[in-house]
Amino acid sequence: MDQNSKPRSVLQSLGEEIIRIIVPVSLCMFLVVILVTVLNTSSSTSVTSIATMAYSETDSDSSWNKFKGALLNALVFVAVVTAVTFILVLLFYLRLTKFLKLYMGFSACLVLGFMGGEIALFLIDNFSVPVDCVTFAVVLFNFTVVGVLAVFMSKMAILITQGYLVIIGVLVAYWFTLLPEWTTWVLLVAMALYDLAAVLLPGGPLKLLVELAMSRDEDIPALVYEARPVTYDDSGLRSGVAQRRLWRERRAVGSNSGENLNSGSNTNSNVGSVLDSNPTPGTVLSVGSGQHATSLVNVEEGRVVGGDTELSVPLIDRRLNVQVNVREEAMSSDSLALEGIGLGSSGAIKLGLGDFIFYSVLVGRAAMYDFMTVYACYLAIIAGLGITLMLLALYQKALPALPVSVLLGVLFYFLTRFFLEVFVVQCSLNLLMF
Amino acid sequence: MTVAAGIGYALLALGPSLSLFVAVISKKPFLILTVLSSTLLWLISLIVLSGVWRAFLPLKSTAWWPFAILIITSVGFQEGLRILFWKVYKRLEDLLDAFADRVSKPRLFLTDKMQIALAGGLGHGMAHAVFFCLSLLTPAFGPATFYVDSCSQLPFFLVSAIISLALVTIHTFSMVIAFNGYAEGNKVDQFFVPGVHLVAGMVTLANLASGGCIIGIPLLYFMAILTLMHCGKMVWRRLTEDRSRQGRS
């Protein structure tokens, strides 16, 4: 056995992909909570948008009226989203992907430029930051342009792309938290149920979209957050930090030719279509164990060599399995956002931006009540996300990421607000803790 | 009192846990997941308890015995959940070992198992600090402060942060002791943990009396130091045993 270092235990790298999704989701929620608490005005600025078309809530209404109005609002919103998703499916079917990509870029520009600008103005107003119009305009313009490019081009550094996607999620989520309270909660539940129906029912628009994309082996043009694929390396020459290896030739021993990689045995016997097979020594073979653990991303062909197959989620026909859902911005213009969870072509987990947005809306709304609800809802959402990821590994098809998390989050919010808070405050104020 | 004071109180309660997290737990993603799931478990236990007790709250009486019943039931329930946590952990350990065999990696080391136990305890401790101390800290970020009658020498936030620190320590390390006790079948350890938890809970009852926190808090810290020392001794003993066993084989 190696005398210099202990053999790496299985605990070193297990669960890394899940953490890579949980970290940006947590970051998005954290930023929205900070924005909400900092910019919280006692008089809610009423936002007239599609979501409040049917009924605008006032404080003087009775609870039942508020509930009915909120239900009406939510139904209108879901109907609009369904209609737009069907239009999206139609456009995708007619192969107008150029138009869709342009539209995606346009909506990113709107979100970053206008929404981001308005929120920046709120912040400047709140903190009395001394900045002049010209500087502000130039900075905002640059920010927006880089963001649109990051969303459009896949050749941008991945950290920038991920950062901009998180920022877009934060901005849209903040605008959603400006909706009145009852409407927000009913809307969240309605969207969770819609997501469930749209992805799993046979006639659902998202299911159609995913099947279309799979049958054509194409990418759906939409805003999706993709976690960095994890590479495992046992040679000890690297620090084991995962890198997104672009533009590298395939030099692995054992490549995949489209089969499911869940072999469970030595994967270097899985010789599919091996290219110039020079197993670059040291980086591919590991010491002492007969199994290499390297997964490379071949960008040109979108093929993955999954080494440590148990640790990486197996591919499904090497294709994307994502689902699309279209969201309405609060400013009544459309934005294309992807929702749902699936597996990317590199085996990394993909989460749609709509999920980020709705999780953050839930937590932001909880922040408007108290911080205890924020912590409880955060834990509930992360638990829901974990359950969804486990189901994803189990069922291996595109799954809606909203229902479990949102329903758990709403449940925990109401439980905390009505039960836990009284209990904890009573105990704490008497300095009784256990 | 100000943002600085608010952050100070938060760090007082959570500082050691945060450094433990950054140093030990953040390196291994599996441990982060363990922390999150044990935090969730603690939260669920707290919600169940508050659901059960909701009908009786707010307790208006100033007598101490309703609170004592509250604490005894809560501690009992949480210790029961700890056993459940242990059973789930056993199953997880078997799964992990089978997985390690399949990918030809070594099975879980003793230090790995202890780290998982530590992560579980840290999750419980962080949940305690977050829900009992941090969630009430929101007013501390504003311009004023708050005093309770029964402990009027220090601001309420400071007292609750100090108590939370002691209880976080107890939670974190008693999980290590408990898991070790269940693994070895050591009866002393198995009863040590619920005992310490119960005593710590009852000791905070002293805070009900006016000026009681002068006695209550040092006693609480005594329990925390006791837990720390016991855990340290136990870990040292296990590690030396393990090392000598490995040296022999």
Automatic annotation (TrEMBL), chain A:
Transmembrane segments: 21-39, 70-93, 102-123, 129-152, 157-176, 182-201, 375-395, 401-425
EC category: hydrolase
Gene3D superfamilies: Presenilin
GO MF annotation terms: aspartic endopeptidase activity, intramembrane cleaving
Any single Pfam family the record assigns to this protein: Presenilin
Domain of life the protein comes from: Eukaryota
Low complexity: compositionally biased ranges: 253-274
Keyword Hydrolase: yes
Alphabetical keyword list: Endoplasmic reticulum, Golgi apparatus, Hydrolase, Membrane, Notch signaling pathway, Protease, Transmembrane, Transmembrane helix
E.C. number: 3.4.23.-
UniProt cross-references to InterPro entries, sorted A to Z: Peptidase_A22A (IPR001108), Preselin/SPP (IPR006639), Presenilin_C (IPR042524)
Compartments, record wording: Endoplasmic reticulum membrane; Golgi apparatus membrane
Region (Disordered): 253-275
GO process terms (BP): membrane protein ectodomain proteolysis; Notch signaling pathway; protein processing
Membrane topology, as annotated: Multi-pass membrane protein
GO cellular component, one term: gamma-secretase complex
PANTHER family the UniProt entry points to: PRESENILIN, PRESENILIN HOMOLOG
Record's subunit section: Homodimer. Probable component of the gamma-secretase complex, a complex composed of a presenilin homodimer, nicastrin, APH1 and PEN2.
Described function: Probable subunit of the gamma-secretase complex, an endoprotease complex that catalyzes the intramembrane cleavage of integral membrane proteins such as Notch receptors.
Record note on domains: The PAL motif is required for normal active site conformation.
Family from the record: Belongs to the peptidase A22A family.
Official protein name in the record: Presenilin
Organism: Liquidambar formosana (Formosan gum)
UniProtKB/TrEMBL annotation, chain B:
UniProt keyword list: Membrane, Notch signaling pathway, Transmembrane, Transmembrane helix
Any Gene Ontology CC annotation: membrane
Keyword Nucleotidyltransferase belongs to the record: no
Membrane topology classification: Multi-pass membrane protein
Primary location: membrane
Spans traversing the lipid bilayer: 6-25, 32-57, 63-85, 116-137, 157-179, 191-209, 215-236
Cross-referenced Pfam families: Aph-1
Gene Ontology biological process terms, A to Z: Notch signaling pathway; protein processing
Keyword flag Cell inner membrane: no
Localization in the cell: Membrane
Family: Belongs to the APH-1 family.
Name this protein carries in UniProt: Gamma-secretase subunit APH1-like
